[in-house]
Design goal:
Number of domains of chain B: 1
Shape of chain A: rod-shaped
Structural class of chain B: alpha/beta
Helix content of chain A: 40-55%
Strand content of chain B: 25-35%
CATH superfamily of chain B: Response regulator
CATH topology of chain B: Rossmann fold
Distance between the termini of chain A: 131 Å
Largest sheet of chain A: 5 strands, antiparallel
CATH architecture of chain B: 3-Layer(aba) Sandwich
Number of helices of chain B: 5
Number of strands of chain B: 5
Number of helices of chain A: 21
Order of helices and strands of chain B: EHEHEHEHEH
Radius of gyration of chain B: 14 Å
CATH class of the largest domain in chain A: Alpha Beta
Shape of chain B: globular
Structural class of chain A: alpha+beta
CATH architecture of the largest domain in chain A: 2-Layer Sandwich
Number of domains of chain A: 5
Strand order of the largest sheet of chain B: 2-1-3-4-5
Oligomer: heterodimer
Chain lengths: 616, 134
């Protein structure tokens, strides 16, 4: 403290002080000022001496005035901060410290002001506040805690967030051992022990994802990263950041599980699924799709278009469909589609294409779903065929029952009537006539029963074995058998079937069928024209078709077409016909899985088409 | 005894024809009995009668199951012919199918001719009734 009176050269002395100091008298006038002080506030030396402080600093705070007054009374005030705005309007912060200025008698005659630029200090204080806040907030919301191991003191300091993670209160005394014990025994505890050991020994830092069991017994996932620190090259301790990532891990696990579920589902449904981008490249394909396209792995198909996979025609067909869906932006669902495989076989698919849209409604691609319904289609067809066969057989059965009852009844009616006559008849000659008729009727009944038996045999003995036969050979053997009939009627048979054509049939049925149709053709010839019969072979769908054309009488198909193959139907006044031949033919050919139809025109001739099914 | 001018028997079974004829002759005096083996020959004859304006039959016995033209086809053709006279048609069939009976009922409703459905064997008493009604 300055207690000696100041002399004139004191002025020089004070000017040279290394700290910014000014002496103020009780009138607030500057008496002495160190050059440092005048420079600090951008004054010239001459400017400040004898000037009132309040004139020099227009915005001098009340606290400063108050502090100065305290000094004038010999008191010691607290320093305060003044904001100083320089001529360029740049603000600086100064701490003003005050001391009373005493004369040699110890009377306060003014105040000594020392100023210090504290801009930097204030700035770092602010920064520190900010950083602390940031750290606190991040650690709280990010559930990031930290703890520090200080070797010299053998202590561990854990922040509140860290304690929160472990679910312990602020009184729980932490040390390295009990921290390690919080980690789940086994892999997790081993890992953390090794990490801590290795960081003390080898100066390594670490980062591990581990599980802990909290004080309350909850299992949590944490990300632990640690770094050893050193003082003068010597190991001094550890700083460890511990983040609770339980929620994140759970979410991740859930997402992974969902993704896995979806993948498993898509891969294992027996439906082909693919996704194409806007350039029609496949960007996803499931197992069925890979199989269908003939690829082994995802990488073989990703990025390929239909043109890289299928033939041009097929690819174009799919491309057109894709385009339609992408342009219209509406899904195309369950379209039936026939796909031609590379080996020439066909499959039927139920195909759906659904456009994929981005956030703004723009098309980003499409999902294609194909279901192979080939087997289903085949079964449907089989079922239809079966249904048809059943209906046909049912019809036949009713027809047959009808005919049987009718025929048997007509004979029994005749017996009944003739017997009635016989009992009352007295004329012997008439009696003999009736007896003769009874005998005829009995014979007819026998024959009818015989015919019916033949038909039942065809319908029930479908197990007769089929054999491959040479069509030409068989037809020629039939022709030989009826050569007398043919010669008598001057009939010509032209067989256009090439040699070596084989067919799978029941040989006896085949012979009987050919025989029936050929004899019919001769029997129903035009009286004045010699019969000409043409036989040819053809392939129609899955059938071998044998065509037998004649130039006979012909039948009115409009009137009698539906009765042509019926039982006991005759169409010509020809006593030798019984109306059974074509009925038996139809039954025999159907028993072999084939079919028959006819075209005919009166006075032109008839054509019978026999279809033999190769498969059955 | 009733006197009937013309009777047609259309049936391909000679025994039935014989039976009907035999009974007819025992219950009525029949001037002309014509036999036909199927519907076609019978309808041809009837058409000829209409054109030549000769005697139409008063009574027809008609079988159903016949070759070439069966009984139903004959009926169809017959009822479409311009015949004002009421002709007595007796279906005589071995069928006991309800469907056939219904079919004959249907024909009845379509024509002014008298149509009756009889099952084989036809009895003397039935033919007596038929001839009386003429």
């Amino acid at each position: 403290m300055l207690r000696s009176p100041l002399k004139a050269n004191d002025n020089i002395l004070i000017r040279q002080l290394p700290t910014p100091i000014a002496f103020i008298n009780k009138d607030f006038k500057v008496v002495f000022a160190a050059d440092k002080w005048t420079q600090e506030f951008n004054f010239n030396h001459g400017e400040v001496i004898d000037k009132n402080l309040r004139d020099l600093f227009e915005k001098l705070g009340d606290t400063t005035i108050k502090s100065l007054r305290e000094c004038f009374r010999g008191q010691q005030p607290q320093p305060n901060i003044e904001v100083y705005t320089d001529p360029t309007f740049k603000e600086s912060y100064f701490e003003w410290s005050f001391s009373p200025w005493y004369d040699e008698h110890g009377n306060a005659i003014g105040a000594i002001i020392q100023t210090e630029d504290v801009g930097q200090r204030i700035k770092s204080d602010l920064e520190k506040d900010k950083l602390e806040f940031l750290l606190q907030e991040t650690s709280r919301s990010g559930k990031i805690g930290n703890w520090e191991y200080i070797k010299t003191q053998e202590t561990v300091i854990g922040c509140p967030v860290f304690r929160n993670i472990l679910e312990i209160d602020e009184h729980f005394e932490l040390n390295l051992n009990n921290i390690i014990d919080f980690f789940k025994s086994g892999y997790d505890r081993n890992t953390i022990s090794m990490a801590i050991f290795s960081s003390t020994e080898n100066k390594t830092s670490w980062k591990e994802k581990l599980q802990i069991i909290t004080a309350k017994g909850n299992l949590k996932w944490v990300m632990v990263s640690g770094k050893p620190f050193y003082k003068s090259g010597k190991y001094a301790g550890l700083i460890v950041v511990t983040q609770d990532i339980t929620d994140f891990v759970h979410k991740e696990q859930k997402t992974k599980a969902n993704e896995h579920l979806l993948r498993t589902l898509i891969n294992n449904i027996p439906i082909q699924v693919h996704i194409k981008d806007t350039k029609f490249r496949k960007i996803l394909a499931n197992k069925s799709e890979l199989q269908f396209c003939g690829f082994q792995s995802d990488t073989d198909i990703i990025g390929k278009t239909d043109f890289d996979i299928f033939d041009k025609e097929t690819a174009q067909k799919y491309r057109d469909h894709d385009l339609e869906v992408m342009i219209s932006q509406t899904p195309s669902l369950n379209t039936e589609l026939i796909h031609k495989h590379a080996d020439g076989s066909f499959s039927t698919f139920l195909t759906s294409k659904i456009p994929l849209k981005g956030e703004n409604g723009e098309i980003t691609g499409l999902v294609g779903i194909n279901m192979d319904i080939t087997d289903l289609k085949k079964k449907e067809k089989e079922l239809k065929t079966l249904n048809h066969v059943t209906t046909q057989q049912n019809k036949k059965l009713i027809n047959f029952a009808h005919i049987v009852s009718h025929n048997l009844r007509s004979h029994s009616a005749n017996f009944s009537m003739l017997l009635d006559f016989l009992t009352t008849e007295e004329d012997e000659e008439e009696k003999a006539r009736i007896m003769k008729m009874l005998r005829e009727s009995s014979d007819n009944l026998m024959e009818t029963l015989h015919n019916l038996n033949d038909i039942v045999t065809i319908s029930s003995e479908q197990t007769l074995l089929k054999k491959k036969i040479n069509i030409n050979e068989k037809i020629h053997s039939v022709l030989k058998n009826i050569s007398t009939l043919l010669d008598q009627n001057k009939a010509t048979v032209v067989c256009e079937i090439p040699d070596g054509v084989f067919i799978n049939v029941i040989p006896s049925y085949f012979e009987s069928i050919i025989l029936s149709i050929l004899t019919n053709a001769v029997r129903f010839k035009k009286p004045e024209i010699d019969p000409v019969i043409k036989i040819s072979v053809n392939y129609v769908q899955n059938y071998t078709q044998i065509k037998i054309e004649d130039n006979g009488l012909g039948i009115d198909m409009k009137k009698n077409g539906h009765k042509l193959f019926g039982m006991y139907k005759t169409f010509h006044n020809n006593t030798s016909t019984k109306g059974l031949g074509l009925f038996i033919v139809k039954n025999q050919i159907e028993a072999m899985g084939g079919k028959i139809n006819a075209q005919s025109q009166i006075d032109v001739g008839s054509t019978f088409n026999l279809y033999f099914n190769e498969e059955h | 005894m009733k006197n009937i001018n013309t009777i047609f028997i259309i049936d391909d079974d000679p025994i039935t024809v014989y039976g009907i004829k035999k009974i007819l002759n025992s219950v009525a005096v029949c001037q002309h009995i014509h036999e036909f083996k199927n519907g076609q020959t019978a309808i041809d004859e009837i058409r000829k009668i209409i054109i030549e304006n000769t005697h139409l039959p008063e009574l027809i016995f008609l079988d159903i199951n016949m070759p070439v033209m069966d009984g139903w086809e004959f009926l169809e053709a017959f009822i479409s012919l311009p015949i004002s006279k009421n002709i007595n048609i007796n279906i005589v069939t071995s069928s006991i199918d309800q469907y056939d009976k219904e079919k004959s009922e249907n024909f009845k409703s379509l024509t002014h001719h008298h149509i009756a459905f009889n099952s084989k064997p036809i009895r003397k008493s039935e033919i007596e009734e038929i001839t009386k009604a003429i």
